[in-house]
Amino acid sequence: MYIPIVDPPIKVESINQVIEVETDFNRLKQILLNLINNAVKYSPTDTPILINLDLQGEEVIIEVCDQGYGIPSQHQARIF
Length: 80
What we know:
The protein is of the alpha+beta class. The chain has one domain: Heat Shock Protein 90 (2-Layer Sandwich). Helices cover 22% and strands 28% of the residues. It contains one helix and four strands; from the N terminus they run E-E-H-E-E. Strands 1-2-3-4 form a four-stranded mixed sheet, covered by helices on one side. Strand 2 (10-14), helix 1 and strand 3 (49-56) form a beta-alpha-beta unit. The longest helix is centred in the middle third of the chain and has 18 residues, at 25-42.
């Protein structure tokens, strides 16, 4: 599914089942918006941003993937 709201395009892929989680909605929203905004900000124009959802046992894995240049190693320790 492509969401043509922003440039670059955002593609969401997930497993074909409903995933329910118990979480703090506002905190999850804040985290996802931060990750997606950074992906848009630091990705080359016209390269897609991919959001993957996966279920591993009782854990939900959310990945935000882009084609940006990445975070320099000296700053990676600040990332949780």
